[in-house]
Amino acid sequence: MTTASARPVWTAGPDEALARRAGKGDIEAFSQLVDRHRDVAVRVAARIVGRQDAEDVAQDALLRAFHRLSTFRGDGPFRVWLLRVVHTTALNSLARKRPIPVEEIEDHTPEPDADDPATPASQLEQAERRDRLAAKITLLKPEHRAVLVLRDLEGLAYEDIAAVTQTPIGSVKGRLHRARHELAELLRNNTYDWELPRA
Amino acid sequence: MPDPAGPEPPAGAGDERLDELLSELRDDPPTGSQGLSQRVVAAARWQRHARSALDSIGGLAVALAQGAAVLIGTRRSRNRRNP
After folding, report:
1. CB-side neighbour CA atoms (13 Å) of B32
2. Which of B15, B29, B44 is nearest residue A180 as measured by Cβ atoms?
3. Between chains, do B4 and A168 touch, taking CB under 8 Å as contact?
4. How far apart are CA A82 and CA A184, in angstroms?
5. Which of B19, B41, B36 is nearest to A46 (CA)?
6. Mutate: best of A42, A48, A57, A136, partner B, most B CBs <10 A
7. B58 exposed, middle or buried (CB, 10 Å; 0-12, 13-18, 19+)?
8. Each residue's pLDDT tens digit, A133-170
9. Interchain contact, B14 vs A197, CB within 8 Å
10. Directed axis angle between helix A120-137 and helix A27-49, to 10°?
11. Model's pTM, two decimal places?
12. What is the ipTM of this complex?
């Protein structure tokens, strides 16, 4: 699994300077922050709430962040602070929505394609497989899902995940362990082409 | 609960395969559109203006209320002196 190297001592950078200016109402500084962090906000939102709602959740989170910039103390990376807002907004969005019926995210497994890996057909198959995997992730409990996304897809350090999710590091590690186990079981039980060996 | 200072939880069977699968998602990340940035910044701009306007209106209302209170207080004290 993804491992993060030992964290160097954190020092404030351009993001934190921009955040201070934006907190005083500088829209140009906020615009630069949005450009720098838009993609990570959408990525994390998409993995938690699904691609369809990701931009709406990211937009909501970025605006909430704008109005709360005065609470950003600057004693840690701005990205971690922003991801905390994205994480909370995404979980709130999930809580408001109805559960997704299982049949909507069931597999539509295509026939295996033995063609060259570079063919459009195989690329389509790979894209569909990615979509099915992303759908499987959305079946995890939201708090497990968030930790898996932050660690295994975004590569955040445990300390940062603890700050984003506002949970102790021990809980983060426990949730991650359970999330990986749950996902592996989902893939083993419901699809034939993941090739996950039994424990 | 795992020890916070301890090593990463032990990898189970299939973890390597799981990581391979997740790497496919890492290689194809969703991205935000330029339109998203424009919408966010535009909304931030008008919301800031709206907040300033509301603050001004609120300040004006407070000033008017205080002025009215002073006027009413003055009139009442004058009435008490000259019944």
Report:
1. 26
2. B15
3. yes
4. 30
5. B36
6. A42
7. exposed
8. 888 899 999 999 999 999 999 999 999 999 999 999 99
9. yes
10. 90
11. 0.75
12. 0.72
